Each structure stands twice: as C-alpha cells, then as structure tokens.
Amino acid sequence: MPAAMEKEPLLQLRVFDLNCWAIRYLSKLRQERVQMIADTLSQEGYDLVLLQEVWSETDYRTLKQRLSACYPSSHYFRSGVIGSGLCVFSKYPILDTFLYQYSLNGYPYMLQHGDWFCGKSVGLLVLKIQEIVFNIYVTHLHAEYCREKDAYLPHRVVQAWELGQFIQHTSKAADVVLLGGDLNMHPEDVGIRLLRGWTGLRDSFTDAERFEGCEDGCTLVPDNYFTNKKELQPFPLGIRIDYILYKGQSNFAVKCDRLVTTTGKAPGKSIPYSDHEAVIATLYVKRHGEAKAPNSNTVEPALVDIMNEARTEVRVGLHAAQRQRYSSGRMAILALLLLLLQAVMGLSSLVGWASPQPFPKFSFSVLGSLAVLVLLVSGVLHIFHAIEVKVLQGTEDQMRLALQSLQDRLSTK
Amino acid sequence: MPAAMEKEPLLQLRVFDLNCWAIRYLSKLRQERVQMIADTLSQEGYDLVLLQEVWSETDYRTLKQRLSACYPSSHYFRSGVIGSGLCVFSKYPILDTFLYQYSLNGYPYMLQHGDWFCGKSVGLLVLKIQEIVFNIYVTHLHAEYCREKDAYLPHRVVQAWELGQFIQHTSKAADVVLLGGDLNMHPEDVGIRLLRGWTGLRDSFTDAERFEGCEDGCTLVPDNYFTNKKELQPFPLGIRIDYILYKGQSNFAVKCDRLVTTTGKAPGKSIPYSDHEAVIATLYVKRHGEAKAPNSNTVEPALVDIMNEARTEVRVGLHAAQRQRYSSGRMAILALLLLLLQAVMGLSSLVGWASPQPFPKFSFSVLGSLAVLVLLVSGVLHIFHAIEVKVLQGTEDQMRLALQSLQDRLSTK
C-alpha cells in the first residue's frame, strides 16, 4: 500500500454522548425531552449514541422503538435497584456486551443522593466496523454534591481506577478504544488524570481540530434552563464533566476532527435536551504503517505522582470508613447490652424479685423496640462499612502493586 | 527455527490448587493445617499456588511470611465483609491484578450459608515468564447446599457466565490462560459446560497424560476425615468440584503432563490439608508454528444447547426473584398501612374521640414497633430482590445477545 493511501482515513465515526436526566416523576419535561432526543438522533443518524441517566426502561423502549430504523442495534445495561441508566444505540451490530459494576458507589442511607440505588457501572460493547474492532465503553460515575467537602471523592477515585483497570484489561484485542459518559470530574481532577494517565486515552476536547460549543467545552452551564444556578455560582462559565475519550491501538490511529457541544438549548428548540449539554464528536480512524504492541503506551513519569495523589485520597476514604465501621459496631454492641439488661430486668420481674411497684410495661416495650431498631440499623451499617473498608484496602493494594510495576518500567527505560 | 525445536516444551509450570477451609473459630485444626500447607508449599517449590477459603488475613500473613523465600510474589484479594478468601503465591513477579466480584452471590439473610458475606469473586493475575504472558484466574463460586433442591443454581449459573465473560474479555493479550479454583460444580453441570464451551478452556483432569489420585479425580471424598459423610452418601466415590483449567493462545499450546490429587490425607501426615483435596498439575507450554487469531476458537454447535439450558436456569431464578420481590414489597406496604392506621388511632385518642376506656398504650407500642420492624426488614428485602431481578434480567439479555452472535458465526462457517 503506498504511503499516501495509508494516510487516508479508513473510517469516519460520529458519536453522540448525553446525560439525559430522565428520572421518572422527578425530571422536568422528561417525556417531551425524550421525544426531542429521539427526533434529533433519527434526523442526524449518528454512528453511535451513548446515553446516561435513562433510568426508566420505558424511556429506553420508547427510544428503541423510535430509533430502530436508523440504529438497528441497541443495548440497555441493567444494574442496581433501578438500572444503571446506561444505554447505547448503534448503526452497526453489537457483537458482545459486558458490565462491570463499581465496587463502591456511595451509601444506601443517603437517600437524597440516590447514587447507590443506580448500581453505577461501566458497560462495554464490542463492535466490528470494516474489520476494525471497537471497544466502546459507556459510564457514569458517582455525582459530586459538594466540591468543598466532597465525601464521595474516595469512592469516585476508586471508580476512576476500576474504570481504567477495566478498560486496560478488556481492550487488549481492540483496534480502537472509545469511552463516553458523565465522569462527574472536572478536567484537572485527580480521578480523570489517573484514568487518562493509566489508559493513555485522549480527550476529544483538547485534541479536536475544530470545536464549537460552550466555552471551555463545558457541559453543565448556567445558560441551561434546567441547571441549578446556585451550584454553578463558583463557575461562571460552567463545568466540563461529560467526556468522549479515545485511543487507537495496534496499527490504528484515531483523530478527532470536530467536537460540538450544545449550548444550553437543543438546536432550533426552546428547551435543552437535558440539564447536561450533549457532546458530539466526529472521529477519523486511520491505519498506521507498523503495529504497536498492546502494552507499548509510553509511561509518563508524572503518572507516579498522580497515582500517589490518588492513593492519598483512597487512604483518606479508608480512615473515614474505618471510623464509621467502628462507631456503628460500637452502637450495635451498646444496643445489644441494653437488650440484655432489659432481658434480665424482665426475667427478674417475672420471678418476683422486682419492687412492689407495677412493672413499667409501656416504657419497657418502647425501650426494647428502640434497642432492637438501633441494633438492626447499626448492624447493617457495620456490615456496609466493613465492605467499604475491604474495597478501599484492596484498591490501595492494587494501586501499590501497579505503582511498583510502573516504577520498574520507568527505571528500565 | 527448525521444526524439532518448535516442539520442545518452552516451559514447565507446576500449579498447586487448594480450597483450604480456613474459617476462623469454625474450621477444625485450622492453624495446624495452615502450618502443614506452608511446609508442603515451601518443600515442593511450585511455580504457582492458588488458594481459596483463606478467610482470615492473619492466615494469609502467616503463609506469606513462611513462603517469602520460595514465593517472592503474592496477593490477597479483598472483597465482601470478610474477604474473598482468594490468595496466590508465585515464584514469578505478579505484574498486575484485577478483581471482579460476581453480581449475584446468595442472600445476606441466609446467615447459615454465609456465602453472601464473602463477596465471591474472580481474581486475575498477570505474569510474564520467559516473555510468555500468563493470565491466571483464581475463583470460588457459590456453594451447593442441597443438590436436589438447589436454590442457588441460578446464582451459580450467573457466576459461571460472568466468569466466562470476564476471562474472554480480559485474556485477549495473554499467551496462556489458567483458571484454578473451587467451582462448586460437578463436571457435567450446566455451569461448567457453559464456562468451558464459552471460553474454550480445557480440563486438566480429562487431558492429563498421567493421573494419580482419587478415583474420577474427585476432590471432596468420603475418605477425608473432615468431609461431611452424610452429604456425600449419594456419591460413594466423592465429587469433583475443584479444577485446574487452561488454554494456550496466539502461538502457544499448553499440555497437562501430570495431574495429582491428594487422597484424603496429606502425604506422610495423619490429617488432610483441608476438607477438599489439593489438585496439582504439571503443565508444559510449547510454541506453535503459526499464530491463531484471538477469536479463532472453534465454535461447537453444542454450545447453543448449553446456552439455552443455562438461560432456562436463569429464567427459573428470575421467576423466583420476582416472586420474592413481590411478596416482600406487599409485606412492606401492609406494615406501612398498619402504621398509618395506628397513627390515625393515636391521633384520634389525643383529640379525645376515643372510647371512655383507657388507651391501650402497651399493646399499641408493641404493635407499632412490630410494624416498624416488619417495614424495615421487608423494605430492605424488597430492594435486595429488586437488584437480583435486575441482574438476572441483564444476564438473560447478555446471554441472548451472545447466543445470537454465536448462531451468526455458526451459520457463516
């Protein structure tokens, strides 16, 4: 093949990514927006559509029905109590799917945050287009509710690490790796630096030849009717938390020709698709001269610092989890002691050792049921935090091992 | 390279696999047996040791300390409340590790079965020996407590499927794939046929050139002092549930030269290592002439039937889970109604609408706390079974997609 031919792009891929904010009974104008999204997707005919927060399977079925002509292949990833919210529509047949649920994902008792109930996951799709193998990943990480005091940071760092490891271990046979989704991390956050450093994935926003959309590529902007303006106050331009990342492997290279975000409104409409902006990338896949070995990613020495930073966050989380495990365990023991004491009192009154006053049945039963309740709740919490401790310890362990391998590779370069 | 050279084995690998039955406070003669296992492992100097049911990290540390000279690299996989019980010792450096926790693993309220608390998982290790990449998997699936009425069969089938998918997706760059562990399945069970058919892994027992050990390769035998003789009554020879499976990929082939099991006692000792027999394989890795593509496993038409059989089991589990989700939800609603009724009664007595008789404070409070307790427990159960339903539906979906791809591949052959 002549050199000029080699540089011709083999394939153009148009990818649409959107956090749909389609929560039944809670999201505003949900059905109208789902219909709007379906309209746009069928008009535009993208190659690949990666959606998040499609919490209701009814919405997925609506989309599937509307899009079946244009996107014959689709998949909904089921996990958690209400579903992962992740789904994909593809012009090309999906050959295989696989789901990895993150080991940590918030706390079930934080009902107002709800993340735990979604079973946040990363979904993998395998596609083959013109004999090029694509590993497509779609994900949604734990939300950030308070940037100043982010209790979920260790969980999100664990998720970013597991996401990176999942991609690295499952993408060895892929020619092109593509990740789209709501990572709930600003571009400079430790989790995304870890993910990008560890996997070698490139950011379509920084790499795009042409960009059109919100300033700085933001995807949560004050101009959007549905966003919480108060939360965005510290960021007048908005924040960028939705990404399309990619890399070429073996003898393929990927280039982002054009990146577009919506700008607070769906084009030609009065309302936006969602509280997030859509991210639309036009990628070109080219063939290289020579094949790269799957492990030949250049190791950046800066990655060592990033990994140490991430380990520190994991350790902070570990200390918090250990404290919570301890205090819930102590509470369970106290409740148990109270119950034992009550049992002794109850028995002694039965055998007639008690005072001549009538036995206080009412306060006794109220106290008893309170103790049972506290025992149950703190017991379950103790188990939950024990699992959290194990996962954080395990992650710290894996990170230490990875760091060691990394340093070995750096020193033998 | 001359043809004769090509056939020379490149590498010999001696692998030791054992379910150690090391449960703190519960397993008999635990510490003595851990010491015995450490003695044997350091004397024999295997290349790779795959252990299960090392539930206590203290036992792992004891082993690590005793074995550090002979096995410089080791890893303990942490998951669940008490740890996965999985650990490995290796003569060669471990380059990377990854853990996949199965989506379903029994029920937390089945305290007597305890599987849920272990967070059953598959651990992956990456080794490189003489430039050959080894992906080593160690796992332990959900136990079978009653073969006639096995309530955990759908969970175990889901685990076998996830294990197969995890191996397939993560082993694309490996030259040799090796899986060791307690699969809790008899050789003809649907789960193991699915796993073997889907991954192309070969059974060291059926493939070994020489075999020494218990008849039929059994690893849970009546001759073992610790086994439950009553449970083994239907199987006079015992059962085979511990496996070493393997395959060569790219341009490598693997052969099992010799397979050994212990026979109810540790060699030269009066007691066994565990209630399971150890499985010891001597494998040879050879280099092929030509490389095989990673996806070139021959597809067996029988796999279609196996997958349909597995899907039926998943569907049976799905119906059971849906019933349990429904009945726990109904119970929660009834408890809520009772509480509401009580609230109305309480309020009406406060505003003086009640009868002239004194308000029955004691029975009122007992009934109230009972309702709160039932509401809490059935609410948690409802959430748990809702997750179970989602996972079973998701697995059924993935299996259907995989079956479709399989049939496409078979029809284009």
Q: Would you write up a description of this structure?
A:
- The structure is a homodimer of 413-residue chains.
- With 413 residues, chain A is of the alpha+beta class.
- Chain A is 40% helix and 23% strand.
- The first copy, chain A, contains nine helices and 13 strands.
- Chain A has helices spanning 3-7, 30-44, 57-67, 115-118, 153-170, 190-199, 204-207, 302-350, 361-411; strands spanning 9-22, 48-54, 73-76, 87-90, 94-101, 121-129, 132-140, 176-182, 202-203, 210-212, 242-248, 252-261, 279-287.
- In chain A, the strands form two sheets. Chain A has a seven-stranded mixed beta sheet with strand order 3-4-2-1-13-12-10. A six-stranded mixed beta sheet of chain A has the order 5-6-7-8-11-9.
- In chain A, helix 5 runs parallel beside helix 6.
- Chain A is globular.
- The two termini of chain A are 33 Å apart.
- Residues 1-6 of chain A have low confidence and may be disordered.
- At the A-B interface, strand 5, helix 5 and helix 9 of A face strand 5, helix 5 and helix 9 of B.
